[in-house]
Amino acid sequence: MDYDFVAIEKKWQRKWAEEKTFKAVEDPSKPKFYVLDMFPYPSGAGLHVGHPLGYIASDIFARYKRLCGFNVLHPMGYDAFGLPAEQYAIQTGQHPEKTTSVNVARYRSQLDRIGFSFDWDREVRTCDPAYFKWTQWAFLKMFGSWYDKALDKARPIEELEEAFAKGGSAAVDAACNDAPSFTASEWLSFSEKEKSDILMHYRIAYQGESTVNWCPALGTVLANDEVKDGYSERGGHPVFQKKMTQWQLRVSAYAGRLLDSLDAIDWSDSLKEMQRNWIGRSEGAEMVFKVECDGAQYDMTIFTTRADTVFGVTFMVLAPESEWVEKLTAASEKDAVAAYLESVKKKTERERIAGKAVTGVFTGSYATNPLTGKKVPVWVSEYVLSGYGTGAIMAVPAHDSRDYAFARKFNLPIIPLIEGADVSESSFDAKEGTMVNSGFLDGLSVKEAIPAAIDYIEAHGIGRRKVNYRIRDAIFSRQRYWGEPFPIYYKDGIPTPVPFDKLPVTLPEIDKYAPTESGEPPLARAKDWTFDGWPLETSTMPGFAGSSAYYLRYMDPHNDETLVSPEADKYWRSVDLYVGGTEHATGHLIYSRFWDKFLFDLGYVVEDEPFRKLVNQGMIQGRSSFVYRIVGTNKFVSVGLKDSYETTEIHVDISLVRNDRLDLDGFRAWRPEFADAEFILEDGEYVCGYAVEKMSKSMYNVVNPDDVCETYGADTLRLYEMFLGPVEQSKPWDTKGIDGVHRFLRKFWRLFWDRENFLVNDEEPTKAELKALHVLIGKVRTDIEAFSFNTAVSAFMIALGELQGCSKRAVLEPLVILLSPFAPHIAEELWHQLGHETSVTYAPFPEYVQAYTVEDSVTYPVSFNGKTRFTVDLPKSLSREDVEASVRALPDTAKWVGAGSIVKVIVVPGRIVNIVVKQ
RNA sequence: GCCCUGAUGGCGGAAUUGGUAGACGCGCUGGACUCAAAAUCCAGUGGCCUUUAAAGCCGUGCGGGUUCGAUUCCCGCUUGGGGCACCA
Fold first, then answer.
1. Which nucleotide is nearest to A391 (CA to C1')?
2. What is the pLDDT of chain A when averaged over all its residues?
3. Average confidence (pLDDT) over A862-888
4. Residue nearest to nucleotide B2 (CA to C1')
5. What is the pLDDT of residue A876?
């Protein structure tokens, strides 16, 4: 019987679905294991072979864990809200829900074909009201909470109100954005509206004005991680900085915890580093400068990490968006400052970054250096950011390159503070050297001077130690249709939560999906977009809202009472293995951690980190093929000969190319303009050139997994994607090697079947066969645990070579179990042919037994300095004299052996190379 | 500019903790089977020198170092990929 992968795969995929083989049920008697993939956005293009890479790896791991006796939760769903469906809707008028469900169906059929062991009963879709009810619920919980810095956790807002009523604003140490201070009695006298406005400064989910990334082309604001190099990540449209009132999440309150608990999770160093940079902790000091403008006096606070350089401050700089600009602009400079602010406003984010031109304007006011008493001018410049620190800086041109450039441009003085620093050409930014010109700091090294300066500042009441974080609060509103509506309505202008029992707030039907003519979000088009007669919020939530807690929902997806029941949460706890791309490093993976910590604070979940271990799979790139048309003709020249002609490189569809050889007739039929193409061949064939590029339709290099399943089968696809190289590594898809993997499966099949006979017998395996089997068992286990699937596949191939013609049940049964995570269909089929009734999925992983000894070896005692130190196993061909002579000839350092050491003797036939001592 | 990563045959990639570099697969070459082809099987396959073989020499991006021994550890570069970037 032949290996009929088409029939086998169809048969078992149907059985698995019918029998719900992979259904996960909470079972306290078994240890749990939660394996999760980042759920996909169901795009219209469908899956290409790059997408399943991570899914295959996690599926192997999930199946392996089941074999090891774990109760495995391995769910899948769809991140179904998003821009592409909405833009398609704007163009065609088709409801995004329709597009989305069509795409979801396509994804599902593609996924099913690869034979994943998902528990589809737990599927979630972020756009499903029964799901986003809990996204809205979490938002309301954040709206109803504040962050207590003293306890370092979120608490219900009612407790804040109580504290205000007792002790006013001074009674709490809360994370907030510039809220006014007030007494207890003032609080009690405030109106509802006033109280609401004040609380808004404290809520974890709050409405606040801030400088946001505004993208006019998309008609919406974007979060920082959705902007790349000043362009929108989706669509690549220019982005402007704009002050707007938006819903925001107080992620910044969690900065310290997000940073610290990175140490406790098993993620790659590079990813942790990315998050550390994004969070951006820096230690320094806040310092107060007295400022004077047209006779008025102010105290202005700045942040610096170089308190040691205060003696070199020669000017101050404000961010253009800073509130200080208005206060500190002298009457005489009003016009100049206004003109400058206007010019800054017009620039796109891109221009601000790219144009490194030094610009700025003098405000006409002066600040007093708190240490020297000297007066220095206050300037405004776009190189200072409003969102970081206090939006104002002290400038030390001698030791900061940006301040230096500014000082040079506007002819401001430069005072060097470090001995021997030459600041005639550029600033000296390094934190090393000995202080000079710095009063009481003179003679100290920079490393000593920084804390000494801060101590002094604190002692004299000029400022205090301060840790600053770069991470900003997440902008949470989007002016779009296809997202979760906010469960917020405006009662007398006061943002009011929709009661929990009225959730979810579902999307209204509207006639057009574009923003309104007056620039309002699409939801403003809805006829009756109200709650209880009051207007509802018209913006929707961003993409990361629905993906932030989906891993929790999988634990208890049908629960209508809570996001996740305490029982389910306590059982599944958190994700043990999370597999996905690194592109979410500063988006989803930050927000999810924040979201989880928030729910943890409120006692809804038991773990304060969502993803214990994270593996980032690499991208699979496309391998594009090219033909070379001789300029001005319809003649194509093979790649090896193209240098003798002037040619144009043309992408050719890779389905017309096999092993870089072009299918000439197929090419002529491909497009009308090539119908009468002529070819200049080499060795009778047309050889194409190639390049590794992103897999995309326009480069004709997309490989659909369905096609691979058609020709080779899902098992081959799975095995091949793993065999391609380490999961974490990016690599091009290259069909060349796929035959080798397919051949392996056919050979494997042939251990069981020849043309018509089932070969399996009950003979006793030989020692050599047992050795091959058990080496494989050990290797497969360690490789899977180490996520090294490519070497595991190699191990199978080696074992198969050694087990040729071995059709013994005692060998084949464990072999089938071992193979089942990788190639589940063929394994399931053969498992049943071996007479088993139940799925191989729950068979026990074979035990590794050291069932062999080194053949042809003999044990020698080895002695140094007349004492026997240890014994070694060596090939018989080596005489005892040889061994001892070799050991004696070794240098002393190699001969030392400590008590209790394990010794390995490295033997090249005929001589001892070395002795390795292991502890 | 800063941070993280990687660099090994014609190709994808192996190498447990510093111990015979190139496993496994692809490709290529030769052979078997076949009227022939496909499929399958067997053998060879880093480079140089050599008629061949044996033996030898050189070889893990480059230059140094530590070590009996370095793809592996240290220092300094070159270069591919990714991230951050006026963050004071």
1. B88
2. 88
3. 51
4. A277
5. 55
The reply to whether A740 Cβ lies less than 7 angstroms from strand B is yes
Q: Taking residues A231-247, report their average pLDDT.
A: 82
Nearest to A686 by CA among A702, A668, A672, A708: A668
* Torsion angle in degrees (nearest 10) through CA of A742, A746, A747, A748: 100
Contact A255, A597 (CB under 8 A): no
Task: Tell me which residues from 561 to 600 on chain A have a beta carbon below 7 angstroms from nucleic acid strand B.
Answer: 582-583, 585-586
Give distance CA A594 / C1' B31 (Å): 66
Q: Note the pLDDT tens digit of each residue in A756-781.
A: 889 999 999 988 888 889 889 999 99
- Is A754 within 7 A of strand B by CB distance? no
Dihedrals φ, ψ of A102, to 5°? -60, -45
Q: What is the average pLDDT across A403-423?
A: 89
Give yes or no for CB of A95 within 7 Å of strand B: no
Nearest to A775 by CA among A670, A831, A851: A851
Rounded to an integer, the average pLDDT of A285-302 is 93
| Cβ of A192 near strand B (distance < 7 A) | no
* Residue A913 Cβ under 7 A from any strand B atom: yes
CA-to-C1' distance for A906 and B66, Å?
A: 22
Which residues are registered as beta bridge partners of A874?
A858
pLDDT of residue A269: 83
Report chain A's terminal Cα–Cα distance, integer Å.
Answer: 53
Residue carrying structure tokens 């006639």:
A511
What DSSP letter does each residue of A275-341 carry, written as one string? HHHHH-EEEEEEEEEEEEETTEEEEEEEEES-GGGGGG--EEEE-TT-THHHHH--GGGHHHHHHHH
Q: Identify which of A362, A375, A300, A360 has the alpha carbon closest to the alpha carbon of residue A332.
A: A362
**Is A353 within 7 A of strand B by CB distance?**
yes
Could you read off the pLDDT of A105-144 as tens digits, one per residue?
Answer: 999 999 999 999 999 999 999 999 999 999 999 999 999 9
Contacts of A228 (CB under 8 A, 6+ apart): none
Query: Which of residues 248-287 of A have CB within 7 Å of strand B?
Result: 269-270, 273-274, 277-278, 280, 282, 284
Per-residue pLDDT band at A794 (split at 50, 70, 90): very high
